[in-house]
From TrEMBL:
UniProt-listed PANTHER family: FAD-DEPENDENT OXIDOREDUCTASE, NITRIC OXIDE REDUCTASE FLRD-NAD(+) REDUCTASE
Database matches in InterPro entries: GlpE_sulfurtransferase, Rhodanese-like_dom, Rhodanese-like_dom_sf
Pfam families: Rhodanese
CDD domains in the record: RHOD
The protein, known as: Rhodanese-like domain-containing protein
All residue ranges annotated as the Rhodanese domain in the record: 48-137
Highest taxon of the lineage: Bacteria
Native source species: Aquincola agrisoli
Length: 139
């Protein structure tokens, strides 16, 4: 204990470095990380080859400000019983959202609703833009 008190700065450096190592993981978890997350390139492949449906769970204002081209807007608060979801529950769904949207929660809600292949975009809309993929704005 005396060592810790005498070398408090070493303990502080260890704690700060540990937090900095965990930060990207925690940030990715809220932006679409997790076990079913796919990179943007994989998301595009799923859309083009497997007829995956891109669902943006952002609020309408955030969706109108910018969203992935072709994405359907189904706000996370209205996922249950939403009309914008495909009737075929076997189709792959790719869930995306902007900053502050918990897409993992939305993906869990969709799985609970019976959709069998639900994935999230790792990094969300920011990763989509970074990959220079098309983004559109609603009028």
């Amino acid at each position: 204990m005396q060592f810790l008190l005498a070398n408090w700065y070493l303990v502080l450096v260890a704690l700060v470095s540990g937090a900095l190592l965990l930060w990207p993981t925690l940030r990715q978890a809220t932006a679409g990380g997790g076990p079913n997350a796919v990179a943007t390139a994989e998301a595009v492949r799923l859309i083009n080859r497997e007829k995956a449906v891109l669902i943006d769970v952002s609020e309408p204002q955030a969706y109108a400000a910018g969203h992935a081209m072709g994405a359907r807007n189904v706000p996370i608060g209205s996922l249950e019983g939403a009309k914008g979801l495909p009737a075929n529950k076997a189709l792959p769904l790719i869930v995306m959202g902007g900053a502050g949207v918990n897409v993992n929660r939305a993906a869990g809600m969709l799985r609970k609703a019976g959709y069998t292949d639900v994935r999230t975009v790792a990094g969300g809309l920011a990763a989509w833009r970074e990959a220079s993929l098309p983004v559109e704005k609603s009028a």
